[in-house]
Amino acid sequence: MRILVINSNTTDSVTDRIGAAARAVASPGTEIEAVSAPFGLPLIVTRADWLVAGPATLAALAARRGTYDAAVIACFGDPGLDAAKELVDVPVLGISEAAFHAACMLGRRFGVVSFTAALRPMFEECLAHHGLTARCAGFRMGPPFAGDPGRVAEERLDLLAALCAESAEQDGAEAIILAGGPLAGIAPLLQPRVAVPLLDGTQAAVRLAEAMAGLMPRSPRPRRARALTGFAEDVASLYGRA
Amino acid sequence: MRILVINSNTTDSVTDRIGAAARAVASPGTEIEAVSAPFGLPLIVTRADWLVAGPATLAALAARRGTYDAAVIACFGDPGLDAAKELVDVPVLGISEAAFHAACMLGRRFGVVSFTAALRPMFEECLAHHGLTARCAGFRMGPPFAGDPGRVAEERLDLLAALCAESAEQDGAEAIILAGGPLAGIAPLLQPRVAVPLLDGTQAAVRLAEAMAGLMPRSPRPRRARALTGFAEDVASLYGRA
Amino acid sequence: MRILVINSNTTDSVTDRIGAAARAVASPGTEIEAVSAPFGLPLIVTRADWLVAGPATLAALAARRGTYDAAVIACFGDPGLDAAKELVDVPVLGISEAAFHAACMLGRRFGVVSFTAALRPMFEECLAHHGLTARCAGFRMGPPFAGDPGRVAEERLDLLAALCAESAEQDGAEAIILAGGPLAGIAPLLQPRVAVPLLDGTQAAVRLAEAMAGLMPRSPRPRRARALTGFAEDVASLYGRA
Amino acid sequence: MRILVINSNTTDSVTDRIGAAARAVASPGTEIEAVSAPFGLPLIVTRADWLVAGPATLAALAARRGTYDAAVIACFGDPGLDAAKELVDVPVLGISEAAFHAACMLGRRFGVVSFTAALRPMFEECLAHHGLTARCAGFRMGPPFAGDPGRVAEERLDLLAALCAESAEQDGAEAIILAGGPLAGIAPLLQPRVAVPLLDGTQAAVRLAEAMAGLMPRSPRPRRARALTGFAEDVASLYGRA
Amino acid sequence: MRILVINSNTTDSVTDRIGAAARAVASPGTEIEAVSAPFGLPLIVTRADWLVAGPATLAALAARRGTYDAAVIACFGDPGLDAAKELVDVPVLGISEAAFHAACMLGRRFGVVSFTAALRPMFEECLAHHGLTARCAGFRMGPPFAGDPGRVAEERLDLLAALCAESAEQDGAEAIILAGGPLAGIAPLLQPRVAVPLLDGTQAAVRLAEAMAGLMPRSPRPRRARALTGFAEDVASLYGRA
Amino acid sequence: MRILVINSNTTDSVTDRIGAAARAVASPGTEIEAVSAPFGLPLIVTRADWLVAGPATLAALAARRGTYDAAVIACFGDPGLDAAKELVDVPVLGISEAAFHAACMLGRRFGVVSFTAALRPMFEECLAHHGLTARCAGFRMGPPFAGDPGRVAEERLDLLAALCAESAEQDGAEAIILAGGPLAGIAPLLQPRVAVPLLDGTQAAVRLAEAMAGLMPRSPRPRRARALTGFAEDVASLYGRA
């Protein structure tokens, strides 16, 4: 099975990190291809960023059409996800979507931990969009952060462990989602210090994408070709299928 | 006051219809400019359509930046709305958003009437996104429709009157939203046959945009310029401000 | 256009303050008449107060019937609002209702700031009654206050600025409602110190009332005359129309 | 124990019917006094009616203050209930409130049955106000009714039995509330034809009022006297206590 | 009237405490029988505990079948409650269910106070199961507790009084539930120090069970006998009735 | 990987059917063991049935402890699921839980189709327990059924196809769950006649259990041994671990 993992921003170093996390949990027969968005922004923060990252993500999906059995949108907030589910004939999962559903299957209440409170509104909206607000035991976020996102996971490791403990002990979380791109891949480092299972969105998405690929009907859904103007050829091609 | 009204699809005849409805309710000193999306799709139906209509709508907003005091996104579903609120320094309202809020101010419970049940899922999701599901008394929709959308309002006028009566009498609606582009402008024709106020989204949006333009602080919010690639110059310019 | 602004309590100094705030945002052609409730209580605090303020508000609406194009109930909690919408043939808006809807049109998440936590339960219930709880990013309220309500805004200005900052930075509020009568009119003083738009309920209500007056059908709804006993002549007259 | 049962409208024949239903379930030592509102309207239908019935209900509570251990507001919609709970030192229950809570204690899902769909919006709002919407399996209401409310229960008995059967079999109701004044007292006639328990609001309220009278602290809550103008002496007296 | 009060765990000293609290509020003609679960666990903490306490509670109900007019399951979380309502022909109430409903009838918003935050998740889930989350003003819980549950009420009395004050003053609670077995019976000690009514779940359940016993139809519901294997004879007998 | 699939009732023919459905989608390296509950009831219908099926399901899990990498509770309603997640150190999934989560990952709105309306209340409660009510587009159920459950799938195949079409076309379902034991395994027969993906709960659970087995930490959670009395040795052993 081949799974395309798309980093919805244009920063290749993040893509590498995501790819490594994905490969660490993929089943033996699964091949991971991790790619960056072909255009857009180096970092996705606002709702406007989320919107423009959508076509960029679709472009990445379109460029490799036919070469993968499932796809993962590896950007918390899941840009382009709903559109991709409509336009692509294999399962497409977002990493926040996957983290939420996997957490629900591990326990009744999950916590969300991240390094800065600035991400909380986005996470809350994403959680509400997926309809799972009532399953969330609460958010535990660190203070404002102005340093290098690429090093925050290591620099704030003790803080994160403390936040996870609060989530489990005070909020009653039975599983904890480590949310936000800069925390990708640190679950194994933290797990020994935390009493409940930790979830990495990319890893949850890869495992669940493997699962869904075996449940979805194989025959492509028929669609009427439509003319989309003003977007890259790849994006338009998703609309142009016979 | 100048209000830019953007039809998020590329069909100019619809734009004309929307412009006429807007001018019919604008205050004396208000000037309406109605424009089509500069690229994208001739009709917005699916979630994928909604996503790609977002940057097209942003492009229209960017192209005329500085020439309007408020803007209206005249496409049920409000593509690009959340991003526009972040990127533009004057009030931007969507027509579904405006219809929902105006209906709430007319009564405790509003109904939604449209000509075909196929639109119901999109309307329900839009309503949930705006957080007002609990204020809705119910949907009353006609059967599947395969004819000319440009003529459905007139062809199904009796059906619409009957659906409005059901909404008011059986669901307890105290105001009714006539939803969906093809019904733009028919409220005056139907109102004499309906016991509760009817709302046209474009018209609600124009009046509310006038209102909001007087409430929002005038000084532009400071933003850090960022480089957006892969989109039309106009869209990128919204990110590039000093 | 003439707008009747009713202070639902009997304290004329508050009425003056409300009237000034209303005039500051009214459109050029709009004339504001601000009146106190003709009877009732000098301050509305409890649910019982709210109930008895309802007929007092209706009496004020009835006494000037035919002289206004829209009305505003200028008392947080909106006493008599639902009844007024039924009994009066022009748009009637409450200031909390108006603040909530206007805030939603400014951003996805709004905060509520006030000078004392004692008001929080009332605000929460009012918000829930209007169905917009999910759009609220949170409440930020000051400690108990036992001084002169007429001076609290000025005395606690620094505290209010700090609460607004918390609302924007920690809760992610994109617009902030300054709630509670004693804060009427201080938004302009605070706005320079706050990064997101501030909303004054009375001002939001005046602008939205102007908007709604242009959307509601002009012909009065037919009603059957009914005999109401035990209330002032004015209130009974609302029931007695042919 | 003495329980005051207040019919919030001024129609004495309805008061008699309510009193009889109340006495049929009161415990041996309980004495029921049933009274009509001293002023107001002969029938409560709209939200405006509900508002003006509030002070009328308070007046009845005030007129007999000190003579009862608990009170019941016997009007579906519970006018004046929240205010009465604040102003009166013994338990005050509304009949819709009581019906909803009692139904919840009989099963997980309750149905609501009434003779005409015109009452559905009011019942839905009342249910939402009490926060129990999620426990309701659905409404089953008859067609519009223009006859004599005093005879509808008997005339539509077969219809009501059929609606109860639908509620139990199709909606999964495990208890059914017979809602609306005109159905008071018919539960015993219908019960033999229905497979699940039927609830009469007045009767539920009387039993629950007896229960609550034994749970509430006896010492009156201290209140500051306040001057209420424009209302009957009795109502003002509720505010004037030392 | 006879009421069977079942402690769902096997600890007789707790059963004695529960029985005393029940008798303190029972009506003159009511006889209380308090029994421990015949098997199971000495303490109910987790969801697994809750599950296995269900058949143990059913066994206690079955063993005395025919000797009581109503029953109370005296274990916060209400194990076996939904099943008991189906299998037993008299009213069966849980103490958390009773506390929630009674609190709602005392005021619009109730608080929940307990001695340790460790119980909060269970209480929240129980509250959500009963559908009354929106009526709860908030939880106020003490820090972790590792001492003797039998003495915590007395040891933490000052803390509990402080938590009750916070609940009333900051959260706006109008009634407060003292939750958790170890707090059974301490309401009278705390009430003089708290401005709003305190509720003990067992006592609420006894009063409400008396009330419901007068509302439920007397004739047993017909059931088809079914063969249940692997459980104690008493439990199976609930399935075996003709 | 070995997955234990437990039919929570005692009917072996159903167990065989479930086992076949499970094996049809299991990954190449996965071995399925399907077992019946060792005691309990031949069919699970009511909430009481659900309760007693819980310990029976735990007994099956305990009897084979150490021989499986993940487990599936194959009974709609998921009896014993929350307890099993606490007591067992490998992932345990319920088939309704799995169907709901998988459906969410296939589209924004899922429908639920089954052969008889009698199952609707149970499905609705199960859906609410998992917190996903808002993702459900609606239920489409057949009329009462009194025949042989083992043959209903085949007898009502045309009806089911029609219900699926209604779910997709009128409710906007983007994936459909075929709910209820008697429909296990018929998805492949119906899929060619339905435009959106069909989901079988057992099959979804097997795929998702494979996924979760790769995400959960391997080291068993430490638990304190506790003495459970009155249950089969196997069940008690789950409590007795060091």
From TrEMBL, chains A, B, C, D, E, F:
Which InterPro entries does UniProt cross-reference here? Answer: Asp/Glu/hydantoin_racemase (IPR015942), Hydantoin_racemase-like (IPR052186), Iso_Racemase_Enz_sf (IPR053714)
* Coiled-coil positions: none
Checking Pfam families in the record gives: Asp_Glu_race
Q: So what family is this one in?
A: Belongs to the HyuE racemase family.
Q: State the protein's name.
A: Aspartate/glutamate racemase family protein
Question: What species was this sequence derived from?
Answer: Roseomonas nitratireducens
